[in-house]
Description:
By secondary structure, the chain is an alpha+beta fold. It has 2 domains: about 1-30; about 45-160, Sandwich (Immunoglobulin-like). About 20% of the residues lie in helices and about 35% in strands. The chain has 2 helices and 8 strands, in the order ααββββββββ. It has helices at about 1-30, 45; strands at about 55-60, 70, 75-80, 90-100, 110-115, 120-130, 135-145, 150-160. An 8-stranded mixed sheet has the order 1-3-6-5-4-7-8-2. β7 (about 135-145) and β8 form a beta hairpin.
Amino acid sequence: MNKGFAHIILIVFGLLLSLMIVGFIFKQNGFTPPVPSDKPKSISDIFMFSPRECGLIIGYPREDQLGATVTTPIRIAGYANGCDWYLKDNSAGSVQVLDENGQVISQTYLLTIVQHRAFSPAYFDLELFVKPPQNKKGILLFTNNNEASPVVKRIPITFK
């Protein structure tokens, strides 16, 4: 009976040691995530490897590409994660499209939440149907839900 117990202990110890070695090897080699394609298929493709920043984060079109080229309908995907961007009636705020001179060229679209869990970011994914302006340049104007403390975010775009 003691030999059987000792064998079980050795097997468990061996499995734990093996798992630790595999984890150490992966950590040492570093894991480089795949680069997402230019046009993501789903919201999880956009944020699979992004840090959870505070505020309104736009993943598509990419915020870091000033003057990002878009097609119509314009696909917008992102998340709200506090810092004056809170949920209200299943929405994280709204977005409008302006031309280069600041004239409104679209209706107001709600950033309707498509995925949310308690204590995590609230994700949205929508398409805007807009007729491109003559000069092909515009601005995405995002507004939060907080009338007492309004926050606006602007992202320049270029229509293809």
